[in-house]
């Protein structure tokens, strides 16, 4: 694949196209942040950064890039973990973060229309104040909704409410050739041709640039209650999860964590966690129309946990107590990162009934390989985040042990009929593992879809299934 | 597009491939049922019908058809309404209805794995006995689940629970070239490349032949209550629907009907409907963990209906009473069909907040065009079924008035930012309307996707976006 090397004339043409020097950075003006994402494993500078303001600007840029054969990479808040928003071939980086307007709250249709640069935390604040609920709940609240759509972000409430895909009703998308199209709309049902909207969701900016999003909202649940359940061992905690699923209770979230990750989080936050007594914890959330109803829902689960050896079941039905639990949970990624010099992650997902086997496997892998691996995650939906820590190793040794650990974890996920990524995506970093996990015909079909959208391979090359 | 005219040698080769004469019909042996679907507007005989038993048989047929350039059309129970399962170019009709085994109920993962020929009513019976719930609830319970996946069938409970797409976790699919692949799996989350599973759902047998389906189940709600709400006029009834949506109540279903459709249904069933007092009705369903909770949920809605002029709110919390209401609702299509000599349908969907405008438009169209149009539908999700009745017209006049009515209804749906089909699909009959409603670039993208899956255009040609 060879692209045009950008010239001074290209830079000048794009500057003119945007017409506002404060929204264009080229060469030395480009901040280091634009060369990587949150995890930093993939590093490459674009030739130019354009902070676009509208679909029309995006379209004009895409037309130019198409004509000149210059690669374009869209970027939200840069909170990704797999290098999807890194300009692997240089060229143009489209910074979407200024397209951050709330366009419409439609109370007749229970939809919210936003631009892609709106942050997740801004969406929560906006809709909850008005009695609405946007259920997807990824850990990183400063991600953009455009990034969430592009990775099909999941989060903690997926156990009960599903993932981002389930809340995207319609999209405005700029195609690689610069045409602006609409997929879906405000309609609740749609059987009018192939679901192009569902192709875009999770495509990590490789098929089109999302410029408008229509989200489905729910009424805000009246009450929530959290349970913090300490267990004497990780094994006891995690073995309880499939039983909870099987019990047909409908928790909103079921997370697991180990004491050492909690200690990291306490240090990071400078705040104490409500309990220290145990080696491992489950935290569960329930929501519903009344406290009585929620009590009926969690009663059986609490009993089940105690039968399985839980040391206690701590009920948190006040906002303050809730916050101390969930704030710690929200800080895990940063806290783990603070405990080492470098790390990389896996985001495997396995059938929820097999989450205990996956967690046990990774736990055992630490002593087998002599490497620290910290894990936490969405036990209730089978999605596990495991971080492999460098801990001062020399580069060669770090690469060796990292790849070995990853190969082994993905192989085990495969045995359990899992998938490479539950919610973080494939981006640049996970491509070899996606390739290994897919049937060759499926990879070829994905590439055929990519060609249908982007025959010149201009948009975010090398990512997901790309060459 | 020209295909090979099937020869006696082809027929013999396919007979040998299946190896069981009772599962092969050619020429004169082909029953008339195989030449059309439920509505009968599209009629064409295949050259051969193969009642396949396994993915391997489907794969062998596809390999043969690919090599010989013979078109293949998959067919479930033939309950479709748009000609998707009619062999428009002749060739091979794959009757999937014998692939009707329940393969696995996985209680650890809350999934059910079935072959595509299992009937919807069989799924309900199977899972509900075990305390599980498969929410999609299309009117036609004798459809196959494969057909439901292929059209992304919706149904009445979509208001609260979503559509078939939302309950498909994984698919086994035979590609046009005969390769057997898997998309998705039992996992709850998945961000591992483009969602090919979501491309197949709703693709009406044009991208691959579905041979296995992994469905997501929910716990069965403990109680349900229905409300039958008579209104003095259609206008009063239907204008109440957006207010119900806006009130943030969460009904399971909100259907509307007019008295004359009810009278047709009574005649068809030979059974009385619980109420005759009114011109129009809303029927609502609520479900939940207890009667008290459900009462709290519907209280506000009942009050709202009365404020909007409802004549009464009849509460049905016994199975017998419920049955008399929903049985009538289930018989509407057959009942309307029994009231005329021929009919055709539209299945438009509009944003739910605009359903009252769409219903009023169609109602007024009857006198404008001097044709009977009977409508009913899923008021709560904006999906309306309207049947245009021939009532003994001469062929020319019938075609004229039918096309005029359809053009007008689709144009109005377009004004309201709706879509051509909410749940019945496009198939053969609705292609011109899909073409008109889509941006040309979107149609071209769909065709690009089709080419990626089926470069020889062997599988179900002419359907959806096909040439």
From TrEMBL, chains A, B:
Originating organism: Anaerotruncus massiliensis
Record-annotated FAD-binding PCMH-type domain positions: 42-220
Pfam families: FAD-oxidase_C, FAD_binding_4
Keywords from the named record: FAD, Flavoprotein, Oxidoreductase
GO molecular function: FAD binding; oxidoreductase activity
Descriptive protein name: FAD-binding protein
Cofactors (names): FAD
InterPro entries in the record: FAD-bd_oxidored_4_C, FAD-bd_PCMH, FAD-bd_PCMH-like_sf, FAD-bd_PCMH_sub1, FAD-bd_PCMH_sub2, FAD-linked_Oxase-like_C, FAD-linked_OxidoTrans_Type4, Oxid_FAD_bind_N
Transmembrane segments: none
């Amino acid at each position: 694949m060879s692209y045009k090397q950008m010239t001074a004339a290209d830079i000048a043409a794009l500057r003119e196209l945007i017409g506002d020097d404060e929204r264009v950075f080229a060469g030395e003006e480009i901040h280091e942040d634009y060369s990587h994402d949150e995890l930093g494993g993939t590093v490459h500078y674009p030739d130019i950064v354009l902070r676009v303001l509208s679909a029309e600007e995006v379209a004009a840029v895409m037309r130019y890039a198409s004509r000149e054969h210059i690669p374009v990479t869209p970027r939200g808040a840069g909170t990704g973990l797999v290098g999807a928003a890194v300009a692997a071939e240089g060229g143009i980086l489209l910074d979407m973060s200024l397209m951050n307007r709330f366009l419409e709250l439609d109370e007749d249709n229970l939809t919210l229309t936003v631009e892609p640069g709106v942050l997740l935390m801004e969406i929560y604040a906006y809709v909850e104040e008005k009695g609405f609920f946007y259920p997807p709940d990824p850990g990183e609240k400063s991600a953009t909704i455009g990034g969430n759509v592009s990775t099909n972000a999941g989060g903690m409430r997926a156990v009960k409410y599903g993932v981002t895909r389930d809340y995207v009703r319609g999209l405005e998308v700029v195609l690689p050739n610069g045409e602006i199209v609409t997929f879906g709309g405000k309609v609740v049902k749609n059987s009018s041709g192939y679901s192009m909207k569902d192709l875009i969701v999770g495509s990590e900016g490789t098929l089109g640039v999302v410029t408008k999003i229509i989200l489905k909202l729910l009424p805000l649940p009246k009450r929530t209650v959290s349970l913090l359940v300490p267990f004497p061992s990780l094994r006891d905690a995690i073995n309880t999860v499939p039983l909870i699923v099987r019990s047909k209770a409908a928790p909103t979230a079921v997370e697991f964590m180990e004491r050492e990750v909690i200690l990291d989080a306490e240090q990071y936050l400078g705040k104490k966690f409500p309990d220290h007594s145990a080696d491992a914890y489950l935290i569960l959330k329930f929501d519903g129309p009344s406290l009585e109803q929620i009590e009926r829902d969690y009663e059986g689960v609490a009993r089940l946990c105690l039968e399985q050896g839980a040391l206690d079941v701590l009920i948190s039905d006040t906002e303050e107590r809730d916050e101390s639990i969930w704030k710690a949970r929200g800080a895990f990624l940063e806290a783990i990162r603070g405990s080492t010099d470098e790390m990389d992650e896996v985001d495997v997902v396995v059938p929820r009934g097999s989450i205990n086997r996956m967690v046990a496997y990774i736990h055992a892998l630490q002593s087998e390989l002599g490497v620290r691996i910290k894990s936490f995650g969405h036990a209730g939906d089978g999605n596990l985040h495991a971080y492999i820590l460098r801990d001062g190793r020399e580069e060669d040794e770090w690469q060796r042990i990292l790849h070995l650990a990853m190969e082994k974890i993905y192989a085990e996920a495969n045995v359990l009929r899992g998938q490479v990524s539950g919610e973080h995506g494939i981006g640049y970093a996970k491509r070899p593992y996606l390739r290994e996990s897919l049937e060759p015909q499926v990879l070829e079909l994905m590439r055929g879809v990519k060609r249908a959208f982007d025959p010149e391979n201009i948009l975010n090359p090398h990512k997901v299934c790309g060459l």
